[in-house]
Structures are given as structure tokens and as C-alpha cells.
Design brief:
The protein is α+β, with helices and mostly antiparallel strands. The protein has helices spanning 15-24, 27-32, 61-68, 71-83; strands at residues 2-10, 37-43, 51-58, 84-93. It is globular.
């Protein structure tokens, strides 16, 4: 399995707008329903106003590749260009 931890650093005061746009566009639901997705969950920390975490687990590299080529992934990229200052991604293989 592949674990992907994403930290989005959001433009000041735009965290709720970014998150709401992701939800309204159904990006989270589409990602969760993909073949090979095991976990896709956002975390909104109370003490970090301009941060959102995304925790993902995928069955294998093929599932990650398929996800990165999906239309909803492209839609997320457009939202990131509007709301996100930086994205930090950590990816590692985990035992099942």
C-alpha cells in the first residue's frame, strides 16, 4: 500500500473557501470511490489557520497513477492554483 500525506499551506484567510470548493465539486467523493483507494480524508487543524492536511492510502502505484490522471485530480489542481501557497507531499510504502 502507498500512504500519501499532503500538507496544503493555504493563502491567508482562504482555508474555508478552498475546503468548501473541494467538497462542492465532489473531489473528495470522487477520490474515495476510485479503484484502489483505501483512505482519503481531510483534516482541518484547529490551531493552524491556513493549513489543511490530506491523508491518503492507495492499494498500489497503479492506483496512485490512475488518481493523478483523473478529472477530479485536475480540478483539485485548479483549486490549488487559486487558494494554495505551497503543497508538501510525503509518500511511503506501508505494509497491509
Amino acid at each position: 500500500m502507498i500512504k500519501v500525506e499532503v500538507k496544503y499551506i493555504i493563502k491567508s484567510g482562504q482555508r474555508d473557501n478552498f475546503y468548501n470548493a473541494v467538497i462542492q465539486q465532489g473531489i473528495d467523493k470522487a477520490s474515495k470511490s476510485e479503484e484502489g483507494n483505501i483512505k482519503y480524508a481531510f483534516e482541518i487543524p484547529e490551531n493552524e489557520n491556513d493549513i489543511i492536511y490530506l491523508h491518503e492510502i492507495w492499494k498500489d502505484d497503479n492506483a496512485v497513477l490512475s488518481h493523478s490522471n483523473s478529472e477530479h485530480y485536475k480540478a483539485l489542481s485548479l483549486l490549488k492554483s487559486e487558494f494554495v501557497v505551497d503543497t508538501i507531499i510525503e509518500k511511503k510504502i506501508i505494509e497491509g
